[in-house]
Amino acid sequence: MTPTSEVRPAGDAGNPTSAPDPTPAQIKRWRQYLADELAEASVYRDLASRRTGEEREILLGLAEAEGRHETHWLELLGDNVGKPRRGDIRTRFLGFLARRFGSVFVLALAQRAESRSPYEEDEDATRQMAADERIHEEVVRGLAERGRNRLSGTFRAAVFGANDGLVSNLSLILGVGASGVSTQIVLLTGVAGLLAGALSMGAGEYVSVRSQRELLEASTFNPEARTAIPQLDVDANELALLYRARGMSIEEAETHAAEVLDGMHQEKAEAPAADAPDEHEAIGSGFGAALSSFCFFASGAIIPIIPYLFGLSGITAVIVASVLVGIALLGTGAVVGLLSGASPVKRGLRQLAIGFGAAAVTYALGLAFGTSAG
């Protein structure tokens, strides 16, 4: 049989009448593509149902675009469409998450799904469809970025705090334990490390947030200066200098200052306001940030001492602690990967390698110091 690509080049696949009868392998592949497109459109509609405004319209637009792809495969299949098939397991899982959560995690997964489109290499998909999928990936990336920005501060504190607790306390426990001290000393060291690290993280975050807030307050326009505007000399004043200090060019500053002063006569004087802060740069209270950092660090730092709390000791406790920490590191790394649109497996393994690398160094040092002391 003459290959399909010789009869219907990519880009002209939308005209099924010019094609020979499809092979069973083609029919099977087209049916799967159709099922996947239906499932992806459903995912976008489910996500749209949990949003409002512009984001809702964008997601519904993506669902409509997937509908065009459905039509392409339906036309190719014709009478061979057969019984409806289920989308692949990843798309079905994505749909399950979209119906129940609709969060940035789902958008991040959808972004990865769009990046894996097979249409670039499939001769039965049109060039337009392959281009659509590339653009869909960028659209979803843009929507996911909004969610990433909204939670970036909290998420950063959570991941960094938990990872610091996991790695630092595991390293501390392994280093001290390798020196040959008793189990009680190892447990006491772990608890002390948890409290010291969590308090340090909390105090540092409090100082950081308070300092940032004070810097922002120092750069914010003083509202009391508004009362000085009506008393300014129209012909000689420093209002243009104020606008220049806030980033305007000489011409823009002078024009804007003239508009403000002209507005005074119409009782519409405006204050030279500072740039509105980005909603994604909002900083919460110092106490709230300190408490969050304390809890995040403690939640990670308690994991390595769990086996010692349950009475384990020696190499058994070390192995159990390492396994528990390893699972936690894989989890936090996978979450980072999902949110960043990268491979969760690679990010998880990277996190694991970094954590275990630090712990191995301190364990080796503990062994060396223990031998020297002996």
Question: Can you put this structure into words, describing what you see?
Answer:
- By secondary structure, the protein is mostly helical.
- It is built from 13 helices and no strands.
- Helix 6 runs parallel beside helix 13.
- The relative contact order is 0.10.
- The model is unreliable at 1-14 and 265-283 (pLDDT under 50).
Question: What level of helicity do the residues show?
Answer: over 70%
Mean pLDDT: 76
**Beta-strand share of residues:** under 5%
Biggest sheet features: none
Q: State the total count of DSSP E strands.
A: 0
Terminal CA distance: 81 Å
The value of Rg in angstroms is 30 Å
* Helical segment count: 13
| Oligomer classification | single chain
Low-pLDDT stretches are 1-14, 265-283
Give the overall shape.
flat
Query: Which structural class should the secondary elements be placed in?
Result: mainly alpha
Q: Return the string of H and E elements.
A: HHHHHHHHHHHHH
List keywords for this structure.
mainly alpha; 374 residues
Summarize the structure.
The protein has 374 residues and is an all-alpha fold.
Secondary structure layout plus pairing:
Blueprint: H1 4-7, H2 24-49, H3 53-77, H4 89-100, H5 104-115, H6 127-178, H7 183-219, H8 239-245, H9 250-264, H10 286-301, H11 306-309, H12 314-340, H13 344-373
Helix pairs in contact: 2-3, 2-4, 3-6, 4-5, 5-6, 5-12, 6-7, 6-10, 6-12, 6-13, 7-10, 8-9, 12-13
